[in-house]
Amino acid sequence: MKQNKFYFVVGSQHLYGPETLQMVDADAKTMVDGFNADANIPCEIVFLPCVKTSSEIADVMNKANNDSACAGVICWMHTFSPSKMWIKGLSMLQKPYLHLNTQFNRDIPWSTIDMDFMNLNQSAHGDREHGYITARLNKARKVIAGHWENADFRKEIGVWMRAAVGYKESQSLRCLRISDNMRSVAVTDGDKVEAQYRLGWEIEHYGVGDIINYVEQVTEAEIDTQIEEYKKYYTFATDNMDAVRYQAREEIAVKRFMDERGFTAFHTNFEDLQGLRQLPGLASQDLMRLGYGFGAEGDWKVAAMTRILKAMTADLNGGTAFMEDYTYHFEPGNEMIMGAHMLEVCPTIAQTKPEIQVHPLGIGGREDPARLVFKAKPGAAIVVSLVDMGTHLRMIVNDIECVEQINDMPKLPVSGVLWKPMPNLKTSAEAWIYAGGAHHSVLSYDVTAEMMRDFAEMAGIEFVHINKDTKIADFRRELQYNAVIFGRG
Ligand code: MN
Q: What is the Å distance from ligand 1's center to 89 Cα?
């Protein structure tokens, strides 16, 4: 996370003379040092000398574009900075853009304030001049106002930074498709050209035979090492070590196949296993623990999104998982959704140490697969779905509260999450279905809806948020308005 850099670009002009500009730089340096020492700021902010001309601004934006470590640009107008000089640079900028509206001093120094002070501390109107040009250029951006030493202000910067790190990850993301989409399923499919254009994803298909070649080359010694790795994280609750060792073999093969080709996300398809003896269960789960994105049934969108959400919060340990709406609990006053998948739930969301178990699987027509079984932890979280509307990509986010799982389900040997969606199950489900949200999603305890809103702004895709204040009539109207904005009027 700390390897991601953000340029801090402070706007000014030559009107005030060199002494004022020296003060601008000194104040900006103090601010950057303060940000970098704060745990709420997850990435490094790079101090740069203040910009005074159109060519200086173009140069710094060009540098940001070409610096692969730079995940975004943060601007602030310490003094007035006539914004026509920003047109060229802002038009060139291809990285996420944050406009801070702050001020070095918190309070007006009543007894000493004079015209020199006013010349130096002008963000109250300088940032408005700047806001005009970003609005005029329709620049994708985030605006955060407040004093730079305020903790909430810094937390907001941190949220935006995480979104920008996700966007940076998105731009270099490569997703491995093992086989194609599950036959006849609509929501897991979509326009891969649009996904590459908007989100940068390279989505590449390989036949199952290509993976099987790697599976066959894995050695018994490599499997022994992988089993030792499993022992660090999981409890063995099976005697069927042959099944567990086969999952280890699949994990080593898929990981090697991905690492050799730069893939960081993948999907399987239980309809197309060919010579694979088991559907990858434990293998997929452990690869998610390592940070790879995963989707089942050919769902490349959810695989890529799982990877991106994990990248946004790589320094945190709250957990992010591929998820599926499984079953409803309609008990009056205690309505909930059980989320799970037949095998592939990420162990980073487990409350207790996951158990390796082996059970039959009713679909896929192969041997009993080993899988991790656990209950997920309680806590606030979100679920995220990305769907292809034909005209554009739509992101749907629902705030949820995961609850303690007090009941055992001895005849359902899968990992599960139990949650209460906001504002309630009825409104959440209706809104999600009106929006066309998938049954597959990414569930995260670390990522927030605001992060995903910022990410969607960066990518230029539609974003809708189902939350504690959602009303169905308003939500449907929002979808109608958005349909006009995104070309489906
Ligand atoms: Mn599924």
A: 45
pLDDT tens digits for 403-443?
999 999 999 999 999 999 999 999 999 999 999 999 999 99
Return the amino acid letter for 433. Answer: I
Q: pLDDT by residue (tens digit) across 49-58?
A: 999 999 999 9
Distance 306 CA to ligand 1 centre (A): 14
C-alpha of residue 203 to centroid of ligand 1, in Å: 19
Centre of ligand 1 to C-alpha 285, Å, is: 14
DSSP 285-346: HHHHHTT-EEESTT-HHHHHHHHHHHHHTTT--S-EEEEEEEEEE--TT--EEEEE-SS---
Å from CA of 296 to ligand 1 middle: 6
Tell me, what's the pLDDT at 488? 65
Find the 341 Cα to ligand 1 centroid distance in Å.
6
Write out the DSSP string of 357-410.
EE---SSSSSSPPEEEE-BBPPEEEEEEEEEE-SSSEEEEEEEEEE----S--T
User: Exposed/middle/buried for 91, CB within 10 Å: 0-12, 13-18, 19+?
Assistant: exposed
Residue 297 Cα, ligand 1 centroid: separation in angstroms? 6
Ligand 1: centre distance to CA 127 (Å): 48
- Mind giving me the DSSP string for 413-461? -S-EEEEEESS-HHHHHHHHHHHT--SEEEEESS--HHHHHHHHHHHT-
Q: Which helix (H) or strand (E) covers residue 71, if one does? A: strand 70-77
Q: How far does the centroid of ligand 1 lie from the alpha carbon of residue 437, in Å?
A: 13
Average pLDDT, integer, range 124-139? 97
Averaged pLDDT for residues 312-322: 93
- From ligand 1's centre to the CA of 423, what distance in Å? 25
440 C-alpha to center of ligand 1: Å? 6
- Ligand 1 centre distance from Cα of residue 269 (Å): 10
Q: Is the pLDDT of residue 271 over 70?
A: yes
